[in-house]
Specification:
Layout: E1 3-7, E2 10-12, E3 18-25, E4 32-39, E5 46-51, E6 57-59, E7 67-72, E8 77-82, E9 91-99, E10 114-115, E11 119-123
Parallel strand pairs: 2-11
Antiparallel strand pairs: 1-3, 3-8, 4-5, 4-9, 5-6, 7-8, 9-10, 9-11
Length: about 120
């Protein structure tokens, strides 16, 4: 049974930084396409950044220069480093994972089976 457990959200001023973490329990992170999504109040959930098992990156326009997605296989953990945060980045952030299989396309438009509980990021 795979579980994703997030941490690292908080409140920061514009221009500040936060690092979100997502521990994958129950399986090895190496098998998974992973991504970060966010949902602001009154808005639909949107993809922020995704990472294929081969390292291919997908991202929402406008965040690549400020956000970095990374994996720590030793700790089975996914990270999202967010720099130069803006008020419009305020949202609940979710990590997501899905087993990478042949011919699967890993992107922010792909379906994901496993989701974290969400962590709040507030930028003022």
């Amino acid at each position: 049974h795979v579980q994703l457990v997030e941490s690292g959200g908080g409140s920061v001023q514009a221009g500040g930084s936060l690092r979100l973490s997502c521990v994958v329990n129950g399986d090895t992170l190496r098998r998974y396409c992973v991504a970060w999504f966010r949902q602001a109040p009154g808005k639909e959930r949107e993809g922020v950044m995704g990472l294929d098992t081969d390292g291919s990156l997908s991202y929402k326009p406008g965040v690549k220069e400020r956000f970095t997605i990374s994996r720590d296989y030793d700790k089975n953990t996914l990270h999202l480093q967010m720099n130069n945060l803006k008020p419009e980045d305020t949202a609940t952030y979710f990590c997501a994972a899905d087993v990478d299989v042949p011919k699967r396309i890993c992107s922010l438009m792909s379906p994901y089976t496993y989701w974290g509980q969400g962590t709040q990021v507030t930028v003022s």
